[in-house]
Design brief:
It is a single chain. The protein is an alpha+beta fold. It has two domains: about 120 residues, FAD/NAD(P)-binding domain, CATH 3.50.50.60; about 250 residues, Polyamine Oxidase, Chain A, domain 2 (Alpha-Beta Complex). Helix content is about 35%, strand content about 25%. The chain is built from 15 helices and 19 strands. The strands form five sheets. A seven-stranded mixed beta sheet has the order 8-7-16-17-18-15-19, sandwiched between helices. Strand 12 and strand 13 form a beta hairpin. Helix 1 runs parallel beside helix 15. The longest helix has 16 residues. The model has no long low-confidence stretch (mean pLDDT about 90).
């Protein structure tokens, strides 16, 4: 066994870092302050339902993640590529199907003539896809920074289409209300959504860190660890000093840092309100100052997420939208979600039962354009995590790979 390395934090980045360190012959001690591994990628079981902590999917288009994870072994199943878009109307809501025309040409063609938006906007989506698919991930992050909103405007998209499609979709992904996220991150995510599928593991999103943990052979894991980092080579563990070849910090210090929050509301329903296996976007999120960004029915994708004859409805509400409305309690969030959902689906929402209201206060790091400008600069050599690279599973994995490569 080689020299001993300590990794603090058993989220995705810390687990993958431990795996790579094992491969280089190090003896690894992995410390986690909570009672379980996985960090933000957590699932719980309640009344026969699998409830992910927040709405999570895996993107099979991520190149490194696709070499790390075995989607077949986790029995992952995909959403259909594209989205449903809903507009609440007094008599009956209008629903459009916006399918990926490259992978679902017939459905995509129907979407082009259903009057959701102009043919020019749809053409621009195709041109945008062509543009990003021809650019490597590395080159995307060397481009000049600007906001996602400014980039979409520069590509000729109408304000209406941005508000009704990009805002609920990417605002829900980036967990912000103004599309201020750096356009390089938008291009990266859009590209990987275009070349892969959004999938769910059979046993919930917690199956992802478990898959990584099961790959470890010699790493010693300590849960509920009381650990203090002294320096790059020393820890205080349970009030005792311990020396290591290196100490690696695989978590972010949240205190004093800007992070993005999200509310997730889970409902049990007698049946799915959706006819197809898409996520559903709220086209009124910007135009009418609504609350819900999108909903999904995970049990439509993975029946294991709900008991037989039940459906799991998962609602995503960006924290900034709730803040603007002055909504801050679980009860207010649940009531507001039910009101909007009733505008969408009518009386059937009255038959839904509330399962859980989650408020994830540090769901994503708030990264500035300067952070993306310096994405390849190792400011803190012995630190990894999506906060050091970019906010995605791919970013978390790449940050670990980069650190271990240079160790």
């Amino acid at each position: 066994m080689g020299e001993k390395v300590a990794v603090i934090g058993a989220g995705i980045s810390g687990l993958y870092c431990s795996y790579l360190l094992e491969g280089k012959g190090f003896e690894v001690e992995l410390f986690e302050k909570s009672a379980k591994i996985g960090g933000r990628m957590a699932s719980t079981e309640k009344s026969g339902f699998i409830l992910d902590q927040g709405f999570h999917v895996l993107q099979t288009g991520y190149p490194l993640a696709s070499t790390v994870f075995d989607y077949q072994a986790m029995n992952c199943r995909p959403f259909q590529p594209g989205a449903l878009v809903i507009e609440a109307r007094p008599r009956k809501s209008k629903i459009w199907c916006f399918a990926d025309p490259f992978r679902r040409p017939l459905t995509g063609m129907m979407g082009a003539i259903n009057l959701f938006t102009s043919p020019l906007n749809l053409l621009r989506v195709g041109l945008l896809r062509w543009h990003v698919m021809r650019t490597s991930d590395e080159d995307i992050f060397t481009q000049t920074g600007q906001t996602t909103l400014d980039f979409l405007i520069s590509r000729g998209f109408s304000k209406s289409f941005i508000d009704r499609f990009f805002s609920p979709l990417f605002g829900g992904i980036f967990l912000e209300s103004s599309l201020r996220t750096d356009a390089r991150m938008f291009k990266f995510v859009f590209k990987n959504m275009s070349r892969g599928d959004m999938v769910l593991p059979e046993q919930g999103i917690s199956a992802v860190p478990k898959f990584l943990f099961d790959k470890l052979e010699n790493t010693k894991l300590t849960l509920k660890a009381d650990v203090k980092i002294v320096n790059d080579n020393e820890l205080i563990v349970d009030n005792k000093h311990q020396k290591y070849f290196r100490v690696i910090k695989a978590y972010d210090e949240i205190a004093g840092k800007m992070t993005r929050s999200v509310w997730t509301v889970h409902f049990s329903a007698p049946k799915s309100p959706l006819k197809q296996k898409f996520i559903m976007l709220n086209s009124n999120i910007k135009t009418q100052n609504k609350l819900i960004s999108h909903i999904a029915v995970p049990s439509d994708i993975q029946p294991s997420y709900a008991p037989v004859d039940k459906s799991l409805i998962t609602v995503t509400i960006v924290g900034e939208h709730a803040d603007k409305k002055g909504i801050s309690s679980e009860g207010e969030i649940a009531r507001s979600a039910v009101e909007e959902l009733t505008e969408w689906f009518g009386e059937e929402v009255g038959g839904w039962n509330l399962l859980d209201v989650q408020h994830i206060t540090a769901a994503l790091p708030e990264l500035s354009s300067n952070d993306f400008d310096n994405i390849d600069v190792n400011k803190q050599f012995l630190e990894c995590g999506d906060h050091t690279y970019h906010g995605s599973v791919e970013g978390a994995l790449k940050s670990a790979a980069k650190l271990v490569k240079n160790l």
